Amino acid sequence: MIDGYAKLGSYDQARLVFCAMPHQETAAWNALISAYEQNGKPKEALSLFHELQHSTIAKPNEVTLVCALSACAQLGAMDL
Predict the structure, then answer these.
(1) In sequence order, what are the residues at sequence separation of 6 or more whose Cβ sits closer than 8 angstroms to the Cβ of residue 77?
(2) DSSP E strands: which ranges in 1-80?
(3) Comparing C-alpha atoms, which of 25, 27, 33 is closest to residue 55?
(4) How confident is the model over 54-73, as pLDDT tens digits?
């Protein structure tokens, strides 16, 4: 559902669905982070990534890290 709203550009609705979830698993975080990252909102994606790092329920995985790296690249924030 999060992914569907995000694909329609309804980020507020996607975020509402996410926030209404009793247990925000890693897959839900990834869907929301990816939605922001893929649609030109890298700052929002990285903000969510930082929130996820402090979550007691979910932890970042490989998918999360790819999305975060892509968001950094969009911002030119990678120092290679």
Answers:
(1) none
(2) none
(3) 25
(4) 999 999 999 999 999 999 99
